[in-house]
Specification:
This protein is α/β, with parallel strands linked by helices. It contains 9 helices and 9 strands. The strands form 3 sheets. A 5-stranded parallel sheet has the order 4-7-3-8-9, with helices on one face. Strands 1-2 form a two-stranded parallel sheet. The longest helix is centred in the last third of the chain and has 20 residues. The chain is globular and about 60 Å long. The relative contact order is 0.16.
Length: about 290
């Protein structure tokens, strides 16, 4: 068993699902059957819509109980015998803590999400960024005059479907968006960790998505600070000229923020100060999560 209590059979199922997703199969169904013999009636459970893997146990030995998913604090400790109640299994749902982080552009959402990952260690957090879900060029038509700062520019229905998959079966496929070509270029697999974070400026806009999550955080940062951060980010990450960034900010980003993002703050369970100590905020959130799980 690995650190999440998954057996070799379950890991094999994950590997096959990832391979199918890499080949372009959207949300592949993979079912793993563990059986003492090949003739144990498992074939009666086969369906034509899924890949079925039968694993025949060679002996009855079980691995030792394990816990933790990294060396960060706090640790998520899950014993093997608690696996069914705590973590996702291939082909079935699991219990995950799903947090949602919203707020204005360059307000600190991604930084907070990254700190939550760093504080827990590898494999403890699945980060789902809504920037992945910008609509492909074929759905937008001409980019002339297209407003990327309105909620419709993001396929929030697809994001809702992916979060639903993560809650039900522990895996899904997510779009890959290329910001240089401004187009969707493919899909890749995503697997649930004990903590799933959905992050984006329109994270609270789509009610069905908003209501699927356990805790809603809004990172609140003054407009002037966000503009200064965006100028630095756009130059470093996207090679944009500062004057171009400022023009887009005043022409589109700020007016759309005031119209579509700021009003969603009312749906937040908690407001996080985007100019405060985000490391301390991340630590406090994770300790609260650990306490609620005990």
């Amino acid at each position: 068993h690995d650190l999440f209590g998954r057996s070799p059979a379950e890991l094999l199922g994950d590997l096959v699902a990832h391979g199918l997703a890499a080949l372009g199969v959207v949300r592949p169904q993979v079912h793993v059957h563990e059986s003492p013999t090949l003739g144990d009636g498992v074939a009666d459970q086969f369906t034509a819509e899924a890949v079925h893997i039968v694993v025949v146990a060679l002996n009855g030995q079980q691995g030792p109980a394990v816990g933790g998913c990294g060396d960060g604090l706090p640790r998520f400790k899950v014993a093997r015998d608690e696996h069914d109640r705590a973590l996702p299994r291939p082909g079935g749902g699991g219990r995950h803590s799903i947090r949602q982080i919203a707020g204005g552009s360059a307000g600190g959402k991604s930084t907070l999400a990254r700190l939550l990952e760093e504080h827990t260690g590898p494999g403890c957090v699945t980060l789902l960024q809504l920037d992945r879900f910008y609509r492909p060029r074929e759905e937008r038509g001409s980019d002339a005059g297209y407003n990327f700062d309105r909620p419709h520019a993001v396929d929030l229905e697809l994001a809702e479907s992916v979060v639903g998959d993560l809650k039900r079966v522990g895996r899904s496929s997510v779009p890959i968006y290329d910001f240089e070509t401004h187009d969707r270029v493919g899909y890749e697999p995503i697997v649930s960790a004990p903590l799933v974070i959905v992050e984006g400026i329109f994270a609270f806009w789509h009610e069905p998505l908003r209501e699927m999550l356990d805790l809603r955080l809004y990172v609140d940062t003054p407009d002037g600070e966000r503009l200064a951060r965006r100028v630095v980010r756009d130059r470093a990450d996207r090679g944009r000229d500062p004057d171009s960034t400022r023009k887009q900010w005043f022409d589109s980003v700020l007016p759309m923020h005031d119209q579509f993002v700021e009003p969603t703050k009312m749906h937040a369970d908690r407001i996080v100060d985007g100019q405060g100590d985000l490391k301390r905020a991340a630590t406090a959130l994770l300790r609260e999560l650990q306490s609620s799980a005990q």
